[in-house]
Amino acid sequence: MKVAIETIAAVGYSQASVGQISKRAGISKGVFTYHFASKDELMDQIVREVYEAGFRFMQQKVEGQTTPVGMLTAYIESNLAFIKEHRDYIVALAEIVTNARTPEGKLRFAGQADDTILEPLIEIFKWGEETGEFRTFTERAARVTASAIRSAIDSVATKLVAQPDLDIPGFSEELVSLFLTAVCKPKASTAATREKGEG
């Protein structure tokens, strides 16, 4: 798995053949096929592994927060920290998702995207409404805002593929500031800014 991820990140999805991956891993194709019936099966496993690794990385940082502002900040920062610290994972995932296709020629993972990834953000918004830190959200506003946050985070991952030296901490700081301004009531936003400055 580790060698496959490194290979895809280094040479791209198309060039990362079973033979290439086996060669880099120092194993025969027979050993490869003992563990994975096909390249597609390996790709499925890599996609699962990257998402699960990201979830594990973020979980403690997000769930340990005691305020909605802190939790939203941790959500954005931990997402981008994972991207920064696991560049090969992110590049490999981007390569697989944008290139792997079904026998009919459709993108293999396109149909797996749904709105469940937005639910943690929507829950944070609801909590912020209850505490009075966040503005009031309609259902549509919550989903649009959550989508905007996810799109902003995912765009950083996409940029990283083309720009290995991308200033991810800088992106993280700006995205936190942008989205706290978007969701907080003015008083809460000012307090968050002051708290950040004092830190």
Automatic annotation (TrEMBL):
| Gene3D superfamilies the UniProt entry points to | Homeodomain-like, Tetracycline Repressor, domain 2
Superkingdom classification of source: Bacteria
Sorted UniProt keywords: DNA-binding
Query: Residues annotated as DNA-binding region?
Result: 17-36
Give the matching InterPro entries. Answer: DNA-bd_HTH_TetR-type_CS (IPR023772), Homeodomain-like_sf (IPR009057), HTH-type_Tx_Regulator (IPR050624), HTH_TetR (IPR001647), Tet_transcr_reg_TetR-rel_C_sf (IPR036271)
Tell me where in this chain the HTH tetR-type domain is found. 1-54
Write down what this protein is called: HTH tetR-type domain-containing protein
Q: What organism does the record attribute this protein to?
A: Paenibacillus cookii
